[in-house]
Amino acid sequence: MTKTMVNNYVKSKVINPPVKKKYSKEQVMLLALVYQLKNILAISDVKGFLIYTIMKPYLKKTATNSLKNISIFIIRWSLNI
Description:
Low-confidence stretches: none
Helix content: 55-70%
Distance between the termini: 25 Å
Largest sheet: none
Order of helices and strands: HHHH
Number of helices: 4
Oligomer: single chain
Mean pLDDT: 77
Structural class: mainly alpha
């Protein structure tokens, strides 16, 4: 993953911009997920997927629970469980 790719994801609002030039743990996990999903989906589909499956629950939970849920999701998805 290149810095140009990350900048494009931020510009297209797939992920939120960094705060004071630093990405949070959640953002890094989302970047890893986007990187994997973009191989099979269009970036607009990845964005929609994130909004409805990851970001919506994230808004209702604490950051710690969200990071745990994102981690579990990525592991299960990568293992095809």
